[in-house]
């Protein structure tokens, strides 16, 4: 954390050097920058140090004293940490869904006797599409409305928002059954690539809209996380297609 204080008692550059040297020696101080015009001391510290500690050290070298605090980044640091906590809380449902799917996939692979990446990707994509389609179908009408606000196809054909969850469900079942892998992977690449276009446009335009990836049950904002989710499916489908 960095704090800036007014300094009284300094009259020349020699005073500046003495104050800077003294403050720098205090335990916990990382960096000090003292100026004469204006008479201020900017102090970066590893942890909070009481103002009286600085003044006690300055009294030993002359009539110098730290006065009112000019600025501090302590509040901004606190607000940033609070914002990170808020983001984590906002995306908690999405994070939990991914964790549950990963856990189920891992257990399935372990139970089969060996962990095979291709099989794991099949099961993960099956779980992803089936789970996400489920949340969308809980409120299909509102999902379609929300989806039409950013999806490139749904903007032109509103009915696509009603069809999309069933496309996800179909893809999920096909991955689960490992049926028609060529068609399934190509369809996934096409569907998720088109879906990501609307997400990219919304992010670039900095539009504050609701992400419909988990339907309207959870109020998730549109962000790069949504884009990563779409592109992850595209990349996994491409890998499976190339291996085939």
Overview of the molecule:
The chain contains ten helices and six strands; from the N terminus they run E-H-E-E-H-E-H-H-H-H-H-H-H-E-E-H. The strands form two sheets. Strands 2-3-1-4 form a four-stranded antiparallel sheet. Strands 5-6 form a two-stranded antiparallel sheet. The relative contact order is 0.10. The radius of gyration is 29 Å and the shape is elongated. Helix 4 packs across helix 5 (117-137), helix 6 (140-147) crosses helix 8 and helix 9 packs antiparallel against helix 10 (224-243). It has helices at residues 13-24, 51-59, 74-90, 92-111, 117-137, 140-147, 152-156, 160-177, 181-204, 224-243; strands at 2-8, 29-35, 40-45, 65-72, 210-211, 220-221. By secondary structure, the chain is of the alpha+beta class. It folds into two domains: 2-77, Alpha-Beta Plaits, CATH 3.30.70; 91-243. Mean pLDDT is 84; it is low at 76-82. The longest helix is centred in the last third of the chain and has 24 residues, at 181-204. The two termini are 54 Å apart.
Number of strands: 6
Q: Tell me, briefly, the overall form.
A: elongated
List the domain count as a whole number: 2
Q: Calculate the mean pLDDT score and round it.
A: 84
Q: Reading side by side through the largest sheet, how are the strands ordered?
A: 2-3-1-4
**Structural class designation:** alpha+beta
First-last Cα distance: 54 Å
Helix share bin: 55-70%
Question: Which SSEs are present, and which pair or pack?
Answer:
Elements: E1 2-8, H1 13-24, E2 29-35, E3 40-45, H2 51-59, E4 65-72, H3 74-90, H4 92-111, H5 117-137, H6 140-147, H7 152-156, H8 160-177, H9 181-204, E5 210-211, E6 220-221, H10 224-243
Antiparallel strand pairs: 1-3, 1-4, 2-3, 5-6
């Amino acid at each position: 954390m960095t704090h800036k204080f007014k300094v009284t008692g300094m009259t020349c550059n020699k005073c500046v050097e003495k104050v800077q040297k003294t403050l720098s020696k205090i335990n916990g101080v990382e960096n000090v920058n003292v100026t004469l015009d204006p008479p201020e001391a900017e102090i970066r510290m590893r942890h909070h140090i009481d103002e009286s500690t600085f003044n006690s050290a300055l009294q030993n070298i002359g009539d110098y004293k730290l006065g009112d605090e000019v600025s501090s980044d302590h509040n901004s640091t606190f607000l940033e940490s609070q914002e990170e906590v808020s983001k984590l809380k906002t995306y908690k449902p999405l994070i939990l869904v991914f964790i549950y799917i990963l856990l189920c996939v891992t257990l399935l692979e372990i139970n089969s006797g060996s962990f095979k990446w291709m099989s794991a990707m099949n099961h993960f994509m099956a779980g992803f599409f089936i789970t996400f389609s489920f949340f969308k179908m809980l409120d299909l009408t509102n999902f379609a409305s929300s989806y039409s606000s950013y999806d490139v196809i749904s903007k032109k054909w509103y009915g696509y928002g009603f069809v999309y969850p069933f496309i996800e469900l179909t893809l999920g079942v096909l991955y689960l059954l490992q049926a028609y892998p060529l068609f399934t992977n190509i369809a996934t690449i096409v569907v998720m690539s088109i879906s990501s276009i609307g997400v990219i446009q919304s992010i670039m335009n900095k539009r504050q809209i609701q992400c419909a990836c988990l339907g309207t049950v959870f109020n998730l904002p549109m962000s790069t996380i949504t884009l990563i989710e779409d592109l992850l499916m595209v990349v996994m489908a491409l890998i499976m297609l190339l291996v085939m």
